[in-house]
Specification:
Length: about 425
């Protein structure tokens, strides 16, 4: 028994150490995947509209659920030009400065020696049993729209997909702060004091409708992945703050098709999932230049127009899609009682944003498709130009079984003054 245990330990140690050291060439390739040319797929070219009549020819560039949506006539897809979004120079420099200082620990969720930047800039290796985990550490520590940002306003609509009826509309604000590993905004590298050693926090407040007014959500993630997130909910009509149990982050958020664990594509701990790298593909994803889209006239903002939605039930972002290098990662919950059996994440190789996610129910059948639309900061509001980040411009999460969707339209501000540290506390929730 002791020999078997020792062998397992040696194998685990070997798995951690199999990857070769990253090089400057790896950094250049990681942050400049299109320097040698953009991806091409037979049957797909910029400017074309993919619909039910030609979708079979373009199927190699589509995730399975999008191919099915188009095939069934629920939506069409317009192909845009592929271009580099570019990444913050400070973030790239931090990656270079800390190259090869980080490694995986013995257990999933253990990251050793991380300082800042992209932890694992080398290409994922199919022979590496922990390649999927490394890709997702890169997501967890991607540039996250800078070190802090604000979405105001965030318009969210609940829609009956079959009838097109908008059942409910919410108006919210959402703030994010990165407490540690900061590279773009002062204070750097960490906001202090930070006695709880938090990694990042998110604060949400509902302004409309009246029955949900002043509902607030506070999510705090610790730097130590072994610690459970702290999630607090304030319900205005109850006038009290309550802490959510860990299993409640998979409940429908305020009656929508979204759960807290879905935020940004995956909003949970690394150790709560088993990660598997399923390969690299050139796929059509909702990346585009915001200012070059046909934008919505409603709701009105004095200096900004939101993306629009179309297709069946107005459940699909009406934006152009780029053909981009994409890592396919499968995550399976460690907890057998989880509400899902797995997610398939499509991770952008340049920005490590999760633009597409397919969610499967406990029976292993497709339940939801989560589409997160991204623009680059140079093609958004003028004040966001030059920041070198991918901006989350809106989303649609489609329940294919219930024929229902929830959509979101975002106005994102890369302005740290709009996300002061006082927002991210239970005391603020009570006081506000």
């Amino acid at each position: 028994m002791k020999m078997k245990t020792m062998t397992s330990m040696l194998l685990a140690a070997g798995a951690i150490g199999t990857a070769q050291a990253a090089t400057e060439a790896d950094i250049d390739k990681s942050f400049g995947p299109y320097k040698g040319g953009v991806p091409t797929v037979a049957g797909v070219k910029p400017g074309m509209v993919i619909d039910k009549n030609n979708v079979e020819a373009a199927k190699a560039a589509l995730i399975p659920s999008m191919a099915q949506f188009i095939k069934s006539g629920q939506t069409t897809l317009t192909v845009g030009e592929t271009y580099s979004f570019g990444i913050s120079r400070n973030y790239v420099d931090a990656t270079r400065k800390n190259l090869n200082k980080v490694s995986l620990g013995a257990n999933v969720g253990d990251l050793v020696g991380f300082v800042a930047g992209r932890p694992f800039p080398q290409e994922p290796d199919a022979k590496d049993p922990r390649a999927g985990e490394k890709v997702f550490w890169n997501f967890q520590h991607n540039n996250r729209i800078g070190d802090s940002y604000t979405i105001w306003p965030w318009h969210m609509e609940y829609k009956n997909m079959a009838s097109g009826k908008v059942e409910r509309t919410l108006k919210q604000e959402y703030h994010i702060i990165q407490w540690k590993h900061r590279v773009d905004q002062d204070p750097r590298p960490e906001v202090e004091p930070n006695p709880s050693q938090l990694l990042r926090s998110g604060y949400l407040k509902v302004h409309e409708p009246q029955d949900l007014k002043d509902t607030q959500l506070l999510i705090s993630r610790f730097s130590d992945d072994a610690k459970l997130d702290e999630v607090y909910l304030y319900l205005g009509f109850q006038r009290r703050v309550r802490r959510l149990a860990s299993n409640q982050v998979t409940d429908p958020f305020l009656g929508s098709d979204l759960m807290v664990e879905d935020f940004e594509g995956y909003n949970g701990r690394m150790r709560d999932m088993k990660w598997e790298y399923k390969g690299t593909r050139d796929l059509l994803v909702p990346f585009y230049a915001h200012n070059k889209q046909k934008l919505a006239d409603e709701p009105k903002e004095p200096d900004f127009k939101f993306i629009d939605f179309g297709g069946e039930g107005a459940c699909f972002p009406n934006v152009t899609w780029q053909l981009r290098k994409t890592y396919v990662i499968e995550s399976v919950p460690v907890n057998p009682d989880h509400v899902i059996s797995k997610r398939v994440h499509y991770v952008d190789a340049e920005t490590y944003a999760l633009s597409l996610n397919e969610i499967y129910d406990r029976k292993g059948e497709l339940w939801k498709t989560f589409i997160v639309a991204y623009t680059d900061s140079d093609n958004h509001m003028a004040k966001n130009a030059g920041r070198g980040v991918a901006i989350n411009d809106g989303f649609a999460i489609i329940d294919v079984q219930a024929k229902h969707c929830t959509t979101g339209k975002f106005k994102v501000h890369l302005d740290q003054e709009m996300s002061p540290t006082k927002l991210f506390s239970v005391q603020y929730m009570r006081g506000s």
